Amino acid sequence: MKPDTRALAAKGLAEVALRGASLRDVMERNARRLADPRDRALLMALLSEGARWWLRFDAAIDDLLEKPLRHKDPAVHALLVLGLVQLEILQLSDYAAVAATVEATRTLGRPPLAGLVNAILRRWQRERDTLLARLDARPQTRHAHPAWLAAALHRDWPRQAEAVMEADNREPPLMLRVNRQRSERAALIEQLQAAGYAASAHPWLDDGLVLPHSTDVTRMPGFEDGLFAVQDGAAQVAADLADLRDGQRVLDACAAPGGKACHLLERADIDLTALEFDAARGERIRQNLMRLRLDAKVVTGDAGAPKSWWKGQAFDRILVDAPCSATGVLRRRPDVRLHRRESDIPAMQAQQRRIVAALWPLLAPGGRLVYITCSVLRAENEAIVGELLAAQPDAQAVHFTLPAGHAAGVGWQILPGDGDLDGMYYAVIGKRAT
């Protein structure tokens, strides 16, 4: 019997929103159960937009129910959220959004609740304007961001906060990076356009390509041959800031899944070590290196404890892609807004301090350390770099600007939506030669 896509999505969304499961893992596991690519596309849209808008429509369902279903029947509660997502975000027809959702209630084995689901969705349609106005009155439900994050954005980026949250809720473009060791950007664009893909050159990233919508990249010409990789434009900035030269020794710390490491190898003939704490994630680095026909040493180890893996020879360049709150990539990872807590930030800061302090002695005089996070919080970004500069007398900030984003106290912050990019922070710290 063919699985009901909406029922699958409801059970998966309940796992993500109420039990802390990874959206990516839930998507991959459930997509295998659907043979029709149209069903898989609907599943992905329901799960992604359900996670993105959960904080808005979860609250709406509470307003519509006399007794909450969230804990008593989490899958049906999630199905109701998805009913509103279909009506308001995906803008499906009334039949698809209501009748098919009611039918999914029966597929979930809850036929007694089918009438309730129908009544709630019909009531939403009748009282829509009033209910939407109530949701729009609070930042948390207006933009579907946790209250602590909305407050942090208004504190750290008061003039940009509303635009950031709006950008977090828009579909991002698909961005690719040409592997210049195996192709040229113009030739790859021509190849993709000939196959029907609306690919164009990024306006200021030398290796970047942009497609308006996500697609299955594994089916695109050139993927198996390693001609390109998927990488948001904000992440492609790292290779420029590294300022590489042939023959340099380079460390990419916290390297998984390997996008920045591969980009560095595509740019120059370097001796690169890709360090990753998690062995399974290290295997993903190896897979990406293999597909792109690149070579690096992949090492399993803790960036904050070099004694276990460092061989004693200094590095000319160090990339610290530090573990962080991921608050800059909510548009691509919408479940982060459901799982991240304000109480997580001090532990993240402690980890960031530990890593940069441990790696600074490994940098050769005259070298540069590029500190990177996909966070928009100043506490994880310029605060950490400022502490390093204050603690190390041989450290000096390297000034730079980018065509998108904003100067921070130290370094540069790309906010979500700046140049249609993900949110990412960069700082470059040079080590004095004497």
From TrEMBL:
Residues 164-432 form the SAM-dependent MTase RsmB/NOP-type domain. The active site is at C374 (nucleophile). Pfam families: Methyltr_RsmB-F, NusB, RsmF-B_ferredox. Keywords: Cytoplasm, Methyltransferase, RNA-binding, rRNA processing, S-adenosyl-L-methionine, Transferase. Gene3D superfamilies: NusB-like, Sun protein, domain 3, Vaccinia Virus protein VP39. Its EC number is 2.1.1.176. It is found in: Cytoplasm. InterPro entries: MeTrfase_RsmB-F_NOP2_cat, MeTrfase_RsmB-F_NOP2_dom, NusB-like_sf, NusB_RsmB_TIM44, RCMT, rRNA_ssu_MeTfrase_B, RsmB-like_ferredoxin, RsmB/NOL1/NOP2-like_CS. S-adenosyl-L-methionine binds at C254, A255, A256, P257, G258, G259, K260, E276, D302, D321. It is an enzyme of class 2 (transferase). It catalyses: cytidine(967) in 16S rRNA + S-adenosyl-L-methionine = 5-methylcytidine(967) in 16S rRNA + S-adenosyl-L-homocysteine + H(+). Belongs to the class I-like SAM-binding methyltransferase superfamily. RsmB/NOP family. Specifically methylates the cytosine at position 967 (m5C967) of 16S rRNA. This is 16S rRNA (cytosine(967)-C(5))-methyltransferase. It comes from Rhodanobacter caeni.
